[in-house]
């Protein structure tokens, strides 16, 4: 069977105040064209369909039309919620999705309905497949609040990873079973996760990428034929017990991603054949570029089809931003090159050298305008207590 794997559309994304709706229209139209050309049996959208939990009407219209267009290519379509999505709102679209023949899983169901996360199908060629579809799981839902207060940060992180591993093991238990006809079944899994050791793309939401949300690749079952991941925006293969891949975002969502190659993954796999993956570039969005130089040097830049971040090698002065934007109308961010700014760290170190903690704390209170009576005395008591214990 053939799979088209995509993720992290982030429809509704605003870049430095610039709406990118027209770019998203072109990008998703190209994804649909790729599906028409490649004729996949299954399309997997691995989360973050939207950039915000409260998408606009235009963003909702674009996503639903793109999913419908992908379904009309003849492929089954499965989409899961990501950390940017409102899972409950996606689930509210289930009646529309079911009528359109689209499998939408926005959030985790109740325990008695957890079987809803296992989706099965048969290709036109008669090949059976089963897919475990895991939306983004918030740590707040994964670990009870009372338990969080009793655990160290490391223990809480391990608890989250253990819970994800147990969920995947439970939902993928059927992977060991043959199909009803005794023949092999293609076992698939999709989720919106951060895997330990994977490379971030540059525009992810850090709180949901690093802080206790990274899990080891060993959570995936070795008898899975392919794991389709979303969340990290850089296309990459993951070292794992089974073939595992991030498709990356089909467009760079922030300047930290300007070196990424936007693409979708095409996967050919069968029950008795290892997954073969190739990336198909998506080129419809404007590229993101960082340029630096003096005004004279910036005047020679010719990048009309790119959004620009400009680092100006000039002394700061009023009107400098306007001068740059007159030269480069596509400049969304204009900053002084950090190399041009004075290094104040040594000066601050010199000012602190040889001064007592009491004096430094007094300076801090003065800088904050804090004249509350007794604060300095309380600091002195605390400092004396700590010093004597040491």
TrEMBL record:
Keywords: DNA recombination, DNA replication, Endonuclease, Exonuclease, Hydrolase, Nuclease
InterPro entries: Calcineurin-like_PHP (IPR004843), DNA_Repair-Maintenance_Comp (IPR050535), Metallo-depent_PP-like (IPR029052), Mre11_N (IPR041796), SbcD (IPR004593), SbcD_C (IPR026843)
Record-level GO BP terms: DNA recombination; DNA replication
UniProt keyword annotation of Hydrolase present: yes
Region of interest (Disordered), residue spans: 340-366
Domain Calcineurin-like phosphoesterase stretches: 1-100
Top-level lineage group: Bacteria
GO molecular function, one term: endonuclease activity
Domain Nuclease SbcCD subunit D C-terminal: 288-366
Database matches in Gene3D superfamilies: 3.60.21.10
Stretches with biased composition (Basic and acidic residues): 345-366
Similarity comment text for this entry: Belongs to the SbcD family.
The protein's assembly and partners: Heterodimer of SbcC and SbcD.
Function: SbcCD cleaves DNA hairpin structures. These structures can inhibit DNA replication and are intermediates in certain DNA recombination reactions. The complex acts as a 3'->5' double strand exonuclease that can open hairpins. It also has a 5' single-strand endonuclease activity.
Protein name: Nuclease SbcCD subunit D
Organism per entry: Actinoplanes missouriensis (strain ATCC 14538 / DSM 43046 / CBS 188.64 / JCM 3121 / NBRC 102363 / NCIMB 12654 / NRRL B-3342 / UNCC 431)
Classification of source organism: Bacteria, Bacillati, Actinomycetota, Actinomycetes, Micromonosporales
